[in-house]
Fold these 2 entries.
Entry 1:
Amino acid sequence: MRTTVGIVGAGPAGLLLARLLRLAGIDCVVLECRDRAHVERRQRAGVLEQGTADVLRAAGAGERLDREGLRHDGIELRFGRRRHRIDFPGLTGGRSVTVYAQTEVCKDLIALALADGCPPLFHSEVLAVEDVDTPAPRVRFRRGGREEVLECDWVAGCDGFHGVTRGAVPAGVSRVHGRTYPYAWLGILADVPPSHDELVYARHDRGFALLSMRSPSVSRLYLQVPEGTKPEAWTDGEIWAELSRRLETDDDWALRRGPVTQKSVTPMRSYVHEPMRYGRLLLAGDAAHIVPPTGAKGLNLAVGDVVVLARALEHELRTGSTELLDAYSATCLRRVWQAERFCHDMTALLHRAPGATAFDDRLQLARLERVATSRAAATDLAEAYTGFPLG
Ligand code: FAD
Ligand code: DHB
């Protein structure tokens, strides 16, 4: 099999890249190890920056997003049983975010791929990417028990943090930065209307809690739990009780409870692989970088990468110039490091580390107080949350 751009992974990065390349008339093939239902149901991100929503619209994936996506003009920070709203448009000159689940983004992009007559090849597990430092890279994959080879001009590694493409960068070239955190997020999906009309990020002495949503009738909630916690360790009743405690306020706000339909634990890490390009291999999205989820940046970064990548590939294929591809890694990494900083700081601002001292707690509360009372501090948060410009 042969194509111009071989894309590994049908998460948001791979699916959107394929769509952008097809719109530019560039031939590509997407290889995905899982099946369609798995990709469409995997519960993950929920918040789209304005720039991300605009990219999806321009790619023709905006119809349902505009109908069903929920525009959010702010978030609430809760600490010391009090509530502080961060007003995005007022602080950023009109910017907002859209709550629209990653599952729905993937469904919309897969539907477009089917309509274009180029669906991802599901059940196709990439085993290795070879010869990326030559003009003829190859992607070896297994489908239906048989090994096959995809020959291409360029390989896009969109296979997430646990993928294989990053492994094709020689050890002497890779520079890896990052850390893990001593806590994780226990996330639930519940059939109950959200208890607040905006997202609530809560700092509590017992740990962080987040109230989010998927639709007017479905809530998404998260609790900070110790690293390594198994979802079964918490009963639904215990989860609701803990959420109520951590989200509690001095006014008459109350958490609505309902049937829990999904429960999972997400580890937290910061990770950056530099460079994002080696020869004809281009890494994008979680394959190149991970942020802790506080700050809702992962999906947005993946979208930013593939916009830069699609533009660079189109430029090379039209003009023969690799100028934009040569700049790809540095262009993306500028934005990636801003998101790394923001997500790290949001995580440190809101989570309670094991062994935190009274001094640590006071500093954390002083930082929160600053965001709640200083327009400059709130603006800094609002600008980062609503999104950094694409490179
Ligand atoms: P992925 O979505 O991981 O896709 C990679 C794909 O590659 C997968 O489909 C995988 O099956 C496939 N693959 C892997 N290995 C192979 C192989 N060998 N062969 C073939 N295919 C392979 N981000 C936000 O922006 N906002 C949020 O609100 C947010 N909240 C989050 C909440 C949680 C609980 C979690 C876990 C993440 C959250 N994120 C959020 C992060 C976001 O989900 C990820 O950053 C995003 O999925 C990255 O997309 P991707 O396409 O790069 O990688
Ligand atoms: C969601 C996830 C996040 O990481 C976040 O910061 C906000 C919302 C969500 O899944 O809804």
Entry 2:
Amino acid sequence: MNTRSAVICGGGGFIGGHLAADLLSKGIKVRVVDVKPTSEWYQVHPEAENIVADMNLRDAAFAAVKGSDTVYNLACNMGGMGFIETNKGLCMISVLINTHLLMGAREYGAKRFFYASSACVYNGDKQQESKIETFLKEEDAYPAMPEDGYGWEKLFSERMCRHFREDFKVPTRVARFHNVYGPFGTWEGGREKAPAAICRKVIEAKLSGKHEIEIWGDGQQTRSFMYITDCLKGIHKITDSETWHEPINLGSAEGVTINQLVDLAEDIGGIKLKRNYNLNAPKGVNGRNSDNTLINKVFGWEPDTRLRDGLEKTYKWIYQEYMEKYGGKVAVQKPAPIGAHVREKATAGAR
Ligand code: GDC
């Protein structure tokens, strides 16, 4: 598939901003659409056509899609566990975005439609053990028991992609992202995921001189984290594939406990902290890792950036952002707002 023009829906967000830069560097004509005002986009690329619109609405979604070969749907209301556990209804409304974009892709004959799904579609029963070896295979999404709210929306939308492909010949491709991190992502405000949150907390401990850190859960829960450049490589392979169209894992298989993630961040920050475990905080599943058998078989590749390397770059970027924003003072972090009033914050998926 040779894309000449692309629209990135949710391109004001973390992954979308990086994807726009990447496509522009390849000489592709790029339209970026996001509901947030451009002042809140993580990256704004002046070479792109930048549009502020709410793709929950049919007309805006159709206008977004019109005239582009490839549609990337990264738009949804999302965040880390602290957000999705307390905003289930809001997360489910994103079903409108994918529905309208798929209908638009059908109407205007898009050559490709990429949908950013998530590891949150996997059956919760298979993620009960805090083990690094909790590798999830693509078939583990069924029988369906995904993450409540957010995961159900993702699973439904995946399914809709399948039926639009089968019934209406919209050439859909679906990746299941496993916790993506890197520079130009959310690091405060309540939607941040563990890698950015832990980096920020280490930085705050250093700045405040209070050498303690709050960790959600008991720190034994396991995850794998995918660096943004791997995510981009995978998006291209999956989108451009002429043969593979089923949902496929896009994640790192380097599993760690959250305690090990904290070890790495402490090491990068050059500090050791007293750990306070908050067992009442949002925790999500006990164990989750990406089984990469299929992606290796289909594409002869899997995400391979070491967590230590990616986290170091992320830490440095967050440190700079922190200093720029707060000038070396420690900010009081507020929890994410709950409810419909955050609709305008809908942003790119960054699973
Ligand atoms: O938020 P998250 O990165 O999402 O959390 C990973 C684990 O880290 C959780 O068990 C959480 O309790 C723990 N944790 C410890 N301290 C903290 O300060 C903290 N902040 C955060 N955020 N977590 C902390 C994600 C979803 C995404 C997406 C991906 C797909 O779930 O939130 O939207 O779909 O999964 O892989 P996580 O990995 O549970």
